[in-house]
Amino acid sequence: MNIVTPRLRLRPLSLDDKHWILTLNRDPLWLKFIGCKSIFTLQDACDYIARTNAQRDEWGYGLCAVECQSTGNPLGVCGLFNRFSFRCPDLGFALLPEGRGKGVANEACQGVMAWAKQQGFDFLTAMTHPHNVASQQLLVGLGFHKHGFYADKGFDVQHLYWLKF
User: Fold this and answer.
1) Average pLDDT rounded to a whole number, residues 135-162
2) Residues in domain N-acetyltransferase (predicted)?
């Protein structure tokens, strides 16, 4: 998954991303809405990147680094996950503070959605924490429709969204 949008480049994570991945996993909004993933050290960040890339290698999709094309600076992550509960991937995203409020998540998600459609997926899911209103609004703006709730071990009950292409 290498995706280019007008302002962004989405690429597979590399071990060189470990510093900002650690920062992202310590961000208060990440902890509030995504939860603690036990990433406390640079080695933990490397392990997270390795797990993410292993999923990409196995399933053909995964989480990507989102970076500004003009500066190369990291802005966050966006990509697709296999939740094993559906026959389609799940869209996920999280931004560093410097990427928020600038349309970055919208643009990155649109790029991932276009890629998914080109790969032949006929629908996507997405989930948000019940109090994450900004992400819920983004998903609705992208064309997702709320489809109830999703509960799985390891995280709180989530609002479930679907998008049919």
Assistant:
1) 89
2) 8-165
